[in-house]
Description:
46% of the residues lie in helices and 7% in strands. It has helices spanning 3-27, 32-42, 58-61, 64-71, 88-96, 123-129, 136-145, 153-156, 159-162, 172-175, 214-229, 245-260, 272-275, 292-311, 327-352, and strands at residues 50-54, 75-79, 103-107, 234-238, 264-267. Strands 2-1-3-4-5 form a five-stranded parallel sheet. The chain contains 15 helices and five strands. Strand 4, helix 12 (245-260) and strand 5 (264-267) form a beta-alpha-beta unit. The longest helix is centred in the C-terminal third of the chain and has 26 residues, at 327-352. It has one domain (31-133, 180-357): 3-Layer(aba) Sandwich (Rossmann fold), CATH 3.40.50. With 363 residues, the chain is α/β, with parallel strands linked by helices.
Amino acid sequence: MNKKQFLKAISFILIALFLLIHLTYCVRTNGDVKDRFVGFYAEKKNTVDAVVIGSSPVYPVFATPKIYGDMGITMYPLSSNMQRPVATKYLVEEALKTQSPELFIFEMRMWTAEDENLLGNMAHTREVTDNMKYSVNRIKTINAMVEDPSERLTYYFDIFKYHSNWKTLALWSQLRTFFYSYPDDLKGYVAETDVGPCTVSEFASLTDKEPMPAEQEEYLRDLLKYLKEKNLNALFVITPYTVKEDEQKKINYMSDIVESYGYNFLDMNQHIDEIGLVFEEDFRDFGTHTNVVGAEKVTDYFEQYLKDNYVDKLGILTRDHRNDHYKSWDEAYKLYCDNIDNWKSTVQYNLDNEIYYDLEGED
């Protein structure tokens, strides 16, 4: 093989690899998680002020377009369903590739569960790994989340998992993800209009402590050390829900750990009256995720918390980007404002007619 033939062969391999990677992006299963990650990659470099990492409670509770419209703060969720704590540090590293957030926010519900109880559906692991761009950090994430090396091949090369989705290439919603970068209209927020009445948990007021699962404590301490080494600001939160007795005890335990490292821990279940939540009306699915009415209340409270504890006290998150011509964020806020009354009307209709969320219809 002469030099010219060698260069042609190398060029062919590189082109084939490029097409393979980007077609894999296109055939990955679509949905709001994919849209959220693709949307994050579409954000212009160093324009996101705060990143929220955590499980499914995150994206329906923090109305990120509203936060921007009210405060000029750009906040984006890197959240997925049943997101395992082991993924957290790697998602921070992923965010830092393109953004320099002034604050990382971590939703901590999943940290009360033993990891072995989160492995029943590996689709939730894939919601993290298969929604990351190909990179060394993605490989590290897979190695951390998939214990058995013999099972990692279809995670490294997820085309093996999704090759049967090739027909979806005809969909613009899939084809537009060729570069895995396409703006999310509502900046990761998902407006939920279902209703599932519930009552305030009797266990939220507990002050007793119970150790969190050992593996999660190890991940937490490793994350805290990493944040300190990187000199990153962080806030750890529990968003409102019908907490169980053992969960509240573990939350109290992890709160002590977080605060011992000098970070704030906000358990919103301790501030239900201030938030103004009505559990019989403001939840989508009987106490786990908020609907748009609950989200608006939580977001209002959280905005004030950020102002008091970070904007005024620490002097961070002070840049008001509403004056910076952030077009996509302006559009997201307009879309939110154009729809919020209709969304809330749907919630009220469901309440008035006792049309409640169907748990049996869940995946």
